[in-house]
Backbone:
């Protein structure tokens, strides 16, 4: 018999039945009054839960499109952008901004570490930056940036907008837009929201909306705030066809969040992450991310000596768990394990147990049950 496969990569994450059901609903016209009501409710909930006086945009696309949307509506050719990069996805902003003719300065950390706050501050003092980008959780390293502290710093610079990539963080790591001085928060549907891939989500705070006004006509069409603002205010209007079933799916995800309580959800993510990380370490793995800056949404797990990445992930797949490989210099040296969104204790225990079986099968001596024991002890605390 085939073993059911748990998809424990950092996105897409497991999609629970009630969300799948929304995807399976009969698609209605985008002018359907019930759909319009659902869309509007979703928009309102998103603004309330992430605490902004600004706007939210929920349109068809992916996280990368939301990155592009954030840049397109706040910066023009010739502007200065400071990119604080903690890895592969931080670096993605470089090419994106370069293509638009934006002047880019980059501060990169070693993978697994963060850029120190004082380094960001002294860079911001050097010249007038129109924006700074920070990746909340860089999926390539499993590092979580101190988003709140950076926000306090950036706020001292009047012309500088604060753009946060929350694609692997939002709905798992705490984010309060106005309180944290975030001007643009971007994300996608398939990570900590636990929805299938396909939605580009972006919040724009009041300062970002003002910046958009100042830019006048921008070169981009589909991602222009001004095209979508009338629709987000009144979804009965048309600009481009909304992804009807995905909107419903995200609405169900937000209902799950409201039912759990967003603060409880954040607390659950911390508890789960620390338990998963303790379990992995008890099996002899090491984690790439600095202990003080570990994400709660995923873990980037370095192999012990004697494990071949391709073989391990193949055997782990046979044991019923899919994980992702390492990126760039860490390809072959590490696997990436997502533990965000709507996963439960069954998913976590099964994942650690499958990792133990895979280790055993590739010839690593580890006491069976050790990781599962650690995990359960941590979760029962
Ligand atoms: C996944 C991810 C992206 C890219 O999102 P897509 O939906 O794959 O386009 C961007 N930034 C971060 C931090 C990510 O984890």
Residues:
């Amino acid at each position: 018999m085939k073993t059911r496969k748990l998809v424990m990569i950092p996105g897409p994450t497991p999609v629970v039945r009630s969300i799948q059901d929304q995807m399976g609903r009969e698609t209605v016209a985008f002018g359907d009054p019930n759909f319009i009501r659902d869309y509007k409710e979703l928009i309102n909930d998103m603004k309330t839960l992430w605490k902004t006086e600004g706007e939210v945009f929920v349109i068809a696309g992916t996280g990368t499109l939301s990155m592009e949307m954030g840049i397109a509506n706040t910066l023009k050719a010739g502007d200065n952008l400071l990119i604080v990069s903690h890895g592969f996805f931080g670096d993605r902003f470089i090419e994106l901004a370069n293509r638009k003719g934006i002047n880019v300065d980059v501060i990169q950390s070693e993978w697994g570490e963060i850029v120190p706050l004082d380094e960001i501050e002294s860079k911001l003092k050097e010249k007038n930056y129109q924006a700074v980008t920070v990746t909340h959780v860089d999926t390539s390293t499993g590092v979580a940036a101190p988003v709140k502290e950076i926000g306090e710093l950036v706020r001292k610079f009047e012309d500088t907008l604060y753009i946060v990539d929350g694609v692997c963080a939002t709905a798992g790591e705490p984010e309060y837009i106005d309180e944290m001085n975030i001007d643009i928060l971007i994300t996608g549907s398939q990570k900590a929201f636990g929805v299938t891939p396909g939605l580009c989500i972006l919040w724009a705070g009041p300062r970002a909306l003002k910046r958009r006004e100042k830019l006048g006509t921008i070169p981009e069409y589909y991602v222009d705030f001004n095209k979508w603002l009338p629709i987000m205010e009144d979804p009965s209007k048309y600009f481009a066809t909304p992804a009807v079933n995905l909107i419903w799916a995200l609405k169900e995800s937000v209902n799950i969040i409201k039912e759990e309580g967003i603060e409880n959800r954040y607390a659950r993510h911390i508890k789960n992450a620390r338990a998963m990380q303790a379990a992995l370490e008890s099996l002899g793995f090491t984690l790439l991310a600095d202990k003080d800056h570990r994400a709660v949404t995923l873990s980037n797990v370095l192999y012990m000596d004697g494990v071949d990445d391709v073989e391990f992930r193949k055997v782990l797949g046979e044991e019923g768990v899919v994980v992702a490989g390492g990126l760039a210099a860490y390809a072959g040296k590490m696997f990436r394990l997502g533990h965000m969104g709507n996963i439960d204790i069954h998913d976590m225990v099964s994942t650690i147990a499958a990792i133990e079986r895979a280790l055993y099968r590739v010839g690593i001596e580890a006491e069976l049950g050790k990781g599962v024991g650690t995990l359960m002890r941590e979760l029962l605390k």
Remarks:
- Residues 11, 62-64, 89, 135, 138-139, 165, 167-168, 188 surround pyridoxal-5'-phosphate (CB under 6 Å).
- The chain has two domains: 6-13+261-379, 17-260.
